Structure formats: structure tokens, C-alpha cells
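Exercise 7. Given the encoded structure of a 89-residue chain, write a plausible sequence.
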């Protein structure tokens, strides 16, 4: 018997509604955590691995580092993975 995959669409919609409610209660840290859960569910539903997400984050940090140098006096510290990407370009 084939196992059914979780109903991600329904879970994500319910989570979206819950995030709105929690935001109305002025709980920003909890909202941030719930958004992380939302990203995890979406990535699992679409077969995106943790490694893929790490690579994407490193690329975003690398790009942010470029824009930080253009617009800020003190750029945000980049992760090791973002530094590695920077050294290859």
C-alpha cells in the first residue's frame, strides 16, 4: 500500500491564516518561526533539499554583500558558504 503524502496545500493555507492571527497578537518572533515552518513545508512539498536551500541562502547572502558595499558603510558579515561563492567569482 502506497503511503499518502501530507496535504501540504491545506497545511500551508492553515499556517498562512495562523500567521496572520499571530501577527495581530504582536508576536513577531513567533511569526518569524512560523514563517520558517512555512518555508520548510513548501520546500518539502516541492522536493527541495536542505542542501538546495543552503545554497540558495548563500547566493542571496553573496548578492546582499554586493549591494551592501554599494549602499552601506558597514556591510553585513557573510556566511562561510557565501564567502566561498565570492572567492569563486
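Solution.
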Amino acid at each position: 500500500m502506497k503511503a499518502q503524502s501530507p496535504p501540504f496545500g491545506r497545511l500551508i493555507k492553515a499556517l498562512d491564516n495562523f500567521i496572520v492571527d499571530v501577527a495581530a497578537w504582536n508576536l513577531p518572533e513567533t511569526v518569524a518561526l512560523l514563517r520558517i515552518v512555512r518555508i520548510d513545508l513548501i520546500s518539502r512539498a516541492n522536493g527541495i533539499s536542505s542542501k538546495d536551500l543552503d545554497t540558495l541562502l548563500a547566493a542571496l547572502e553573496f548578492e546582499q554583500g554586493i549591494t551592501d558595499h554599494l549602499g552601506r558603510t558597514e556591510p553585513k558579515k557573510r556566511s562561510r558558504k557565501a564567502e566561498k561563492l565570492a572567492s569563486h567569482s
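Remark. The longest helix spans residues 50-71. Students should compare their own answers with the one above.
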